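Materials and Methods. Structural model of Major facilitator superfamily (MFS) profile domain-containing protein. The 109-residue sequence of Major facilitator superfamily (MFS) profile domain-containing protein from Hyphobacterium vulgare was retrieved and submitted for structure prediction as follows.
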Amino acid sequence: MSLDKIIWAVSLLAAIVFAFFTFDYAGLILVALGLASGFFVKGDHRKALILAAIFLIAGGAGALGPIPAVGEYLTSIFTNYGAVLGAASIMVIVMATVERLIPGGSSAS
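The predicted structure was written out as tokens:
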């Protein structure tokens, strides 16, 4: 398994774990994992990542909330994963900006 897949898997696992167990630095860990994950996103997946982040952050994470017994946990998991995707989107935006500013760099995004 490649490093990028491992980081994405750890990010998803952290989003799930932090839905059940929280502590002061959970948000920081999710953001750090999101930034690391975003570093590995290739140009053709950048738009999909940003759209998924927008959807989850804008309220899509709460769509499963009404499901009895598990809805609040699913909402928490997807809210946490939205934080990961949001941070990954920031990294993608920064990388795309740097690629456009550096002469001779790839501008495919």
